[in-house]
């Protein structure tokens, strides 16, 4: 191999999921350990890996999850190494240990198929967003990979009594145990939100974390049509 490229060669497998660089996910595939991944996210693979787009289990759980407002999912099975990416976005790998995470659909890259998951309505948000806001909740023990438009910050909401406010367009994920409510500000000089006039924020309180990316997507990434 050209010595100038040697530093980019595959590294030995150290875990089920791990980063290969900032913007690529490496998954060690094995028979009986299937994976759900965002459709179209595979950039390379080694070995024998099969794909099933929009499998029945996904259609049953997320029947209202539509293209353009969610992240279509495929099932991956087999033996080998699988490499996933999302248009150069940063990849964040999380190993859940009997824990749960609520994730924006478009920030969900891959997760172990044995984990419990479903599309859920965000409580307390309906009066601010018409039919309400929706997220994908994942629970259990296993691996999850998220994407972030830039290096994210993880805010610990349990450090004090104050609420944590986040622009919905910059929100990646949060602990489901947190209390969530919406807040509107009618000041043109509002600190959160790029638009002038009315600004809309999500307020989090309780024990848990919130993952925020340094980028605001102009699309309504939380919504799923019912």
Summarize the structure in words:
By secondary structure, the chain is mainly β. It has one domain: Mitochondrial biogenesis AIM24 (Double-stranded beta-helix), CATH 3.60.160. It has one helix and 15 strands; from the N terminus they run ββββαβββββββββββ. The protein has one helix at 56-61, and strands at 17-19, 25-29, 35-38, 42-53, 73-84, 90-103, 108-112, 116-121, 134-148, 153-156, 164-166, 171-174, 179-185, 199-205, 209-212. The strands form two sheets. Strands 1, 2, 3, 4, 5, 6, 7, 8, 9, 10, 12 and 15 form a twelve-stranded antiparallel beta sheet that branches. A three-stranded antiparallel beta sheet has the order 11-14-13, with no helix packed on it. A hairpin with a 5-residue loop joins β1 (17-19) and β2 (25-29). The longest helix has 6 residues, at 56-61. The radius of gyration is 18 Å and the shape is globular.
Keywords:
226 residues, mainly beta, Double-stranded beta-helix, 12-stranded antiparallel sheet, 3-stranded antiparallel sheet, 1 helix, 15 strands, 46% strand, globular, AIM24
What is the compact description of this entry?
By secondary structure, this protein is mostly beta strands. It is built from 1 helix and 15 strands; from the N terminus they run E-E-E-E-H-E-E-E-E-E-E-E-E-E-E-E.
SSE blueprint and pairings:
Blueprint: E1 17-19, E2 25-29, E3 35-38, E4 42-53, H1 56-61, E5 73-84, E6 90-103, E7 108-112, E8 116-121, E9 134-148, E10 153-156, E11 164-166, E12 171-174, E13 179-185, E14 199-205, E15 209-212
Antiparallel strand pairs: 1-2, 2-5, 3-5, 3-7, 4-5, 6-9, 6-12, 7-9, 8-9, 10-15, 11-14, 12-15, 13-14
Organism: Streptomyces solincola
Protein name: AIM24 family protein
């Amino acid at each position: 191999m050209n010595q100038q490229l040697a530093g980019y060669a595959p590294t030995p497998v150290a875990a089920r999921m791990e980063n290969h660089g900032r913007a690529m996910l490496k998954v060690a595939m094995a028979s009986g350990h299937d994976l759900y991944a965002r459709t179209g996210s595979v950039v390379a693979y080694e070995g024998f890996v099969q794909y099933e787009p929009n499998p029945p289990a996904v259609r049953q759980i997320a029947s209202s999850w539509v293209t353009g407002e969610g992240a279509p999912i495929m099932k991956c099975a087999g033996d080998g190494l699988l490499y996933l990416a999302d248009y150069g976005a940063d990849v964040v790998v999380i190993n859940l240990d009997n824990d749960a995470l609520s994730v924006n659909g478009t920030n969900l890259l891959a997760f172990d198929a044995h984990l419990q998951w479903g599309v859920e309505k965000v409580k307390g948000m309906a009066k601010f967003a018409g039919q309400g806001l929706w997220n994908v909740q994942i629970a259990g023990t296993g691996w999850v990979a998220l994407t972030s438009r830039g290096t994210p910050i993880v805010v610990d909401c349990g450090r004090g009594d104050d609420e944590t406010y986040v622009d919905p367009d910059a929100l990646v994920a949060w602990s489901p145990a947190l209390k969530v409510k919406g807040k509107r500000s009618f000041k043109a000089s509002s600190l959160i939100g790029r638009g002038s006039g009315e600004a809309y924020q999500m307020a989090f309180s309780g024990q848990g974390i919130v993952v925020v990316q340094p980028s605001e997507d102009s699309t309504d990434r939380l919504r799923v049509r019912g």
